């Protein structure tokens, strides 16, 4: 919507802003505009800017550009040290309000210097497998702070001087629904299961009385999935029991059907415009999309539609999708692309047991939105009622 002249935009008539991203007249209602400006907590422009025609204008009164992001969610003023007034005290870089310190420095604003050499720091934090804090923690001045996923325990699931013990390895996939380790048939020792008599398997999941071997049992439970019981159930002697118990939305011989995948964030099945069959929406005539969220009819002109599909940088659906009636439809060939403007990569979502969001939530723009009863970065912590 303009031309670049010596590093500054000269906007066409009807547009303004540093990148000519704001229209001077808006054809959106205030309600629709505000909806487009809400962050994941439903706060307009994260409370750090104003909404102008569906796009956030961040509050940078001094013109320093320290508040930024699609929803003004990043505030680099958080990185400024009170005493020196420098960003990260001059010993690190700031990204979205967090300091990432240079070697030898630590603290929220890189204000503390370590009293040991970088070589000694690395040596102390290196785990037996040669990784820094086993890739499960942060090294600060030679001591590992483990990324603990269970805040309720004395030390949680991840512990050890170099975070080498990960007791999540003792939890079979189905044990995400209870506190049992080693399928309830063994003792967990630093991520390894020591099974009781009569049980075998990496997680003590296999009865010795079963005529099938551990491998044969897992193969029967696996079917066409990458995990036994599709990562949604318990495998014993080649038979799957789907979880959560009593939830008829998860079913199938290998628990391959998960009808929760048909629900949007509000719990609506296929947007009320279709039926769910084994985790996939079959849409009524006149509707399409993964959740039947798109109407085939459109009362917009092509120009109006395209204007709503352009991201702040002026690219249509971030170059990763097509525009229909003012909404971006992301490329189905790239299943991981999502977001209002196809700007998100769902591969960035946390995984547990090899599953994105542990199968207990949906990935939304690189962050897991957990179903009711679940918590954790990867929705791996059960906080609901005990299952029988």
UniProtKB/TrEMBL annotation:
It holds the Pfam family EGF_integrin. Coiled coil: none annotated. Keywords: Disulfide bond, EGF-like domain, Glycoprotein, Repeat, Secreted, Signal. Its main location: secreted. Residues 33-73 form the Integrin beta epidermal growth factor-like domain. Gene3D superfamilies: Laminin. It is found in: Secreted. One of its GO terms (cellular component) is focal adhesion. GO terms for molecular function: integrin binding. Residues 79-110, 262-292, 349-379 form the Epidermal growth factor-like domain. This is Integrin beta-like protein 1.
């Amino acid at each position: 919507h303009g031309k670049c002249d010596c590093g500054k935009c000269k906007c066409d008539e009807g547009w303004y802003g540093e990148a000519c991203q704001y229209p001077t007249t808006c054809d959106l209602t205030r309600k629709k505009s505000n909806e487009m400006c809400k962050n994941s907590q439903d706060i307009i422009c994260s409370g750090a800017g104003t909404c102008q025609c569906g796009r956030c204008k961040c509050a940078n009164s001094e013109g320093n550009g320290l508040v930024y992001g699609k929803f003004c969610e990043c505030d680099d003023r958080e990185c400024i040290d009170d005493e020196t007034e420098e960003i990260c005290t001059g010993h690190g870089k700031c990204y979205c309000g967090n300091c990432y310190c240079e070697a030898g420095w630590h603290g929220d604003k890189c204000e503390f210097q370590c009293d040991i050499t970088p070589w000694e720091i690395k040596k102390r934090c290196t785990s037996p497998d040669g990784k820094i804090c086993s890739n499960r923690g942060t090294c600060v001045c030679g001591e590992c702070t483990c990324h603990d996923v269970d805040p309720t325990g004395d030390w949680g699931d991840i512990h050890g001087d170099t975070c080498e013990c990960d007791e999540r390895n003792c939890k079979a996939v189905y044990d995400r629904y209870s506190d049992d380790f080693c399928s309830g048939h063994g003792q967990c020792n630093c991520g390894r299961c020591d099974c009781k008599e009569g049980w075998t398997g990496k997680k003590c999941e296999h009865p010795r009385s079963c005529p099938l071997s551990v491998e044969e049992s897992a193969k029967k439970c696996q079917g066409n999935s990458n995990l036994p019981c599709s990562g949604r159930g318990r495998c014993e002697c080649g038979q799957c029991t789907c979880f959560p118990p009593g939830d008829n939305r998860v079913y199938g011989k290998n628990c391959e059907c998960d009808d929760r995948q048909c629900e949007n964030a509000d719990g609506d099945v296929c947007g009320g415009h279709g039926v769910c069959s084994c985790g996939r929406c079959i849409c009524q005539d006149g509707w399409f999309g993964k959740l039947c969220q798109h109407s085939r009819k459109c009362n917009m002109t092509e120009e109006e539609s395209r204007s709503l599909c352009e991201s702040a940088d002026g690219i249509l659906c971030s170059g990763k999708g097509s525009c229909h009636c003012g909404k971006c439809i992301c490329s189905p060939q790239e299943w991981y692309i999502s977001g209002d403007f196809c700007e998100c990569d769902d591969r960035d979502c946390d995984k547990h047991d090899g599953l994105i969001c542990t199968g207990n939530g949906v990935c939304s723009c690189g962050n897991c939105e957990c179903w009711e009863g679940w918590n954790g970065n990867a929705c791996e912590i059960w906080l609901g009622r005990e299952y029988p």
